[in-house]
């Protein structure tokens, strides 16, 4: 069970890296989803092959299979008019939910409860290119985490790069151009990460340290305030 | 208009006093000034190294410095007869330049506009960009209003000083200058946030003496039968910095509120019927209202205006994002 949890949190990181920005998602264990308040506009049940649930003898191959199945599920959800997809099999449950299905985050998020918000991923026009290899997920989390929340706290321990001003957050230099950076990119201190536009004044925000982008917190095209977290960079 | 960017852009570095001339020498000796992002080469020279004199209608550096009375702004000049963009010179070298360094060009081939717009500017236009460093992100967006205001105030002061008829140049929110219903100039500011500082490049283009394709300041003076009274670029830019330095000090010490009244007197929107697009409470929807602009309307909306356009022609649009609360009201909720 705990092991599966570790895998799942790896998958979260992996799929986020893989598909990046197109969808927001959440993985819960044992059907203990606590998002019952969210209306499910459209759902689709998918049977998964039996080996994904054989938790007692999970081989690397099985994990790899599982990851590729999850990633194709995410792609499926992303390509269709599905807002939310919930998949249950034995003690494993996967919930893929697009950002349209997420409740609006409360404006002043209390320190211990920004969990849902931290899964917000901005949308961009195109999907990230497919990863070179599917096998072990390229994740910074080494020890199996008991739950996604614990996995998240690893990221939360890193101080995010915050917005120095109020304005609109843009991930790319122009609407038709690719984003400055995406999750997984290595960045150098001084590299431009985003633009914040305030009353037609374009402000390029540079990385305050070198490292790897582990999370893009703010959403493309949405307003941000002073001190709104924008990126998490792992040194 | 079709001319290509020169292989190497000539940049002449000159200072108002020995102090700035020393800085100019260091910048040249260290080969500091570059236009790497453009893939352009620059050739930097000092006044003592000018071999062939510039053309008669080139920017007159001596006249400019004689009229300049500032302590910080405009005292180090980077002049070029022909340049891709003064904005690029300042923005790509901003960290290495003293605050207030100005770049002036006679002709600009790829002047910067918003949304990657490029402007070609023939002779007769006053084209310059200058460097500013700021620390408070809440006031950075308002800087462009101060730049607009400094320019309208400068034109006012020169007309008065030279005894020529008043030119009623007005600000079209947020960054254009209009005379008699036609655009005569624009302001573009960009900034880079680096090591807890905003390195701002503020650029101004003002049509002083070129009548084509629309109008210019001197054409307006001709129309009121003032044939001998032409405004000169050197006088205008010097007056601009003289005004800007004072307005900027007020702006930093007291906030934009202290300049609001002057701003309202100078913009062209008072009394206009406009459509205001405002963000709704959930931030994702827009609400449209038709309102008449009152001078105090900048303080009136709750969430901040997303877009404004005139009822008849939708000429002007603006994007101001939910400033209410962030800027203490001043322009906060435009």
Structure description:
The complex is a heterodimer of chains A (235) and B (334). Chain A is of the alpha+beta class and 235 residues long. In chain A, 20% of the residues lie in helices and 23% in strands. In chain A, the strands form 3 sheets. Chain A has a 4-stranded antiparallel sheet with strand order 4-11-9-6, with no helix packed on it. A 4-stranded antiparallel sheet of chain A has the order 8-7-5-10, with no helix packed on it. In chain A, α1 packs across α2. The radius of gyration of chain A is 18 Å and the shape is globular. Chain B has 334 residues and is of the alpha+beta class. Chain B has 7 helices and 13 strands. In chain B, the strands form 2 sheets. In chain B, strands 1, 2, 3, 4, 5, 6, 7, 8, 9 and 10 form a 10-stranded mixed sheet that branches. Chains A and B meet through β7 and β8 of A and β9 of B. β8 (201-206) of chain A pairs parallel with β9 (182-194) of chain B.
Shape of chain B: globular
Average pLDDT confidence of chain A is 65
Oligomeric nature of the chains: heterodimer
- The low-pLDDT segments of chain B are 299-308, 310-334
Structural class of chain B: alpha+beta
Question: Strand fraction band of chain B?
Answer: 25-35%
Q: Please, how many helices of chain A?
A: 3
Helical content of chain A, roughly? Answer: 10-25%
Backbone structural class of chain A: alpha+beta
- Beta-strand portion of chain A reads 15-25%
Round the Cα radius of gyration of chain B to an integer and report it: 20 Å
Write down how many β-strands of chain B occur, each being a DSSP E stretch of 2 or more residues. 13
* Poorly predicted residue ranges of chain A: 1-56, 105-154
Report the end-to-end length of chain A measured between terminal Cα atoms: 31 Å
Radius of gyration of chain A: 18 Å
Largest sheet report of chain A: 4 strands, antiparallel
Categorize the overall geometry of chain A. Answer: globular
Helix content of chain B: 25-40%
- Arithmetic mean pLDDT of chain B: 82
Query: Numbering strands along the chain, what is their spatial order in the largest sheet of chain A?
Result: 4-11-9-6
Main location (chain A): plastid
Organism (chain A): Solanum tuberosum (Potato)
Biased composition (Pro residues) (chain A): 128-147
Subcellular location (chain A): Plastid, Chloroplast
């Amino acid at each position: 069970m705990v092991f599966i949890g570790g895998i799942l949190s790896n998958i979260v990181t992996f799929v986020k890296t893989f598909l990046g920005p197109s969808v927001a998602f959440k993985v819960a264990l044992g059907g203990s989803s606590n998002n019952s308040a969210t209306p499910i506009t459209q759902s689709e049940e998918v049977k998964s092959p039996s080996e994904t649930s054989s938790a007692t003898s999970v081989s690397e191959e099985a994990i790899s299979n599982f990851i590729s199945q999850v990633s194709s599920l995410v792609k499926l959800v992303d390509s269709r008019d599905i807002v939310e997809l919930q998949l249950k099999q034995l003690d494993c449950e996967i919930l893929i939910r697009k950002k349209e299905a997420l409740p609006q985050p409360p404006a002043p998020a209390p320190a211990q409860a920004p969990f849902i918000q931290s899964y917000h991923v901005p949308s961009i026009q195109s999907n990230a290119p497919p990863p070179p290899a599917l096998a072990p997920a390229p994740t910074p989390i080494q020890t199996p985490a008991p739950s996604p929340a614990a996995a998240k706290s690893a990221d939360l321990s890193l101080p995010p790069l915050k917005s120095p001003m109020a304005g609109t957050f843009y991930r790319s230099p122009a609407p038709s151009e690719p984003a400055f950076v995406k999750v997984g990119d290595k960045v150098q201190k001084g590299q431009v990460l985003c633009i914040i536009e305030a009353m037609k004044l374009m402000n390029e925000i540079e990385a305050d340290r070198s490292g790897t982008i582990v999370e893009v917190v703010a959403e493309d095209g949405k307003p941000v305030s002073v001190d709104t977290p924008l990126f998490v960079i792992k040194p | 208009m079709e001319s290509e960017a020169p292989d190497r852009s000539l940049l002449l570095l000159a200072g108002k006093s020995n102090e700035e001339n020393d800085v100019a020498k260091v910048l040249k000796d260290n080969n500091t000034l570059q236009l790497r992002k453009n893939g352009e080469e620059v050739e930097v020279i000092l006044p003592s190294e000018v071999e062939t004199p510039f053309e008669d209608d080139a920017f007159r550096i001596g006249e400019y410095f004689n009229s300049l009375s500032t302590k910080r702004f405009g005292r180090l000049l980077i002049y070029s007869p022909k340049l891709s963009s003064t904005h690029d010179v300042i923005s790509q070298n901003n960290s290495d330049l003293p605050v207030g360094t100005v770049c002036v060009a006679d002709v600009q081939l790829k002047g910067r506009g918003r949304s990657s717009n490029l402007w070609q500017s023939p002779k007769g236009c006053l084209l310059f960009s200058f460097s500013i460093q700021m620390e408070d992100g809440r006031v950075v967006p308002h800087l462009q209003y101060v730049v607009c205001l400094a320019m309208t105030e400068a034109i006012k002061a020169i007309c008065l000083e030279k005894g020529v008829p008043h030119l009623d140049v007005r600000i079209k929110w947020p960054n254009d200058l209009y005379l008699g219903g036609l655009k005569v100039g624009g302001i573009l500011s960009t900034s880079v946030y680096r090591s807890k500082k905003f390195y701002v490049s503020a650029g101004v283009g003002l049509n002083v003496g070129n009548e084509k394709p629309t109008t210019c300041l001197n054409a307006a003076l001709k129309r009121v039968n003032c044939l001998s009274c032409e405004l000169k670029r050197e006088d205008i830019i010097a007056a601009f910095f003289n005004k800007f330095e004072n307005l900027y000090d007020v702006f930093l010490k007291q906030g934009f509120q202290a300049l609001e009244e002057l701003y309202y007197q100078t913009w062209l929107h008072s009394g206009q019927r406009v459509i205001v697009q405002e963000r709704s409470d959930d931030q994702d929807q827009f609400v449209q209202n038709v309102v008449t602009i009152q001078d105090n309307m900048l303080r009136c909306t709750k969430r901040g205006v997303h877009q404004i356009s005139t009822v008849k022609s939708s000429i002007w649009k603006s994007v101001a994002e939910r400033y209410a609360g962030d800027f203490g009201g001043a322009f906060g909720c435009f």
